[in-house]
């Protein structure tokens, strides 16, 4: 496909949607514009494009096209991963996302409409997803965005409803989502050690004691326990996104262009699985939300999530009590504490401020989020006596 998508390639992908033929019957295509949207024109495992089809009658059809790519992955992520393994991760993530969008299209899920998709293989890497566009209608909530309590509470309600909606899905198809879990999380865990240095270089005295407590949890066995094992053991596994930081969701814009409290869609389902769905809420609050906001509303978030689930579920799972809901959320907070050892290095090493003073402020704000989340994670590790999990977690040395 080349490094970037051409106009002809984009039009061919859009024509894979049956409904586009009806549009072409009304008017001929005049031209197509293609604009990369990802940071530096490249995402870590994909490139996202804003594509506009202009018709001769002056009407337009606007979509997002997402194609798999390792360009930025190769340039920026510091991980000991072979080319074969990187291809495997890219194949897994793209094909998985195609599977998830297709699966969720049968329920009322907060996601963009899927028009067409194509999976990839070693023989044909020209895969894609063609989706509804929210450009000019909604904003992502990046790591530097100041998220408010209302947005958090509305997200909690949407996730509670999604949990209820997911009960309508075929159980075997949900379980199949976990097929690539081990490969992907071995990769994620492998990113922690090479990124810890950035945290220690920023503030050694503050972060060294926290890293000493948390670094040993950065392995795939622990990820599996928090994301999957515990929820399955309790009989409360559910569909979830699994990487729901602010860059993977969008809130609607008000008429004046400001960001509202209303969720538009979750995006980037490359790692969605069947397990501890409360990790979605803790991922968002632990990474994106300022810690003073997070700590002030966590009880309210659990209430909002749980009550909304009960409201929409036709047959609520009796094992999913409010206490279980809180425990699963807490496991997610612990996971975010571990993840900050990786996240700080990835984002703080290349801040996106307008000048050096702005970058300094962004790093300081990120460091505060990291420190307090790591402290919360250690407190919860002690609360749930994780030192007793040695046998269950296998290779975890405690």
Automatic annotation (TrEMBL):
Alphabetized InterPro entries for the sequence: CHK_kinase-like, Dhs-27, Kinase-like_dom_sf, Oxido-Kinase-like_Enzymes
Superkingdom classification of source: Eukaryota
Residue span, CHK kinase-like domain: 129-315
Name recorded for this polypeptide: CHK kinase-like domain-containing protein
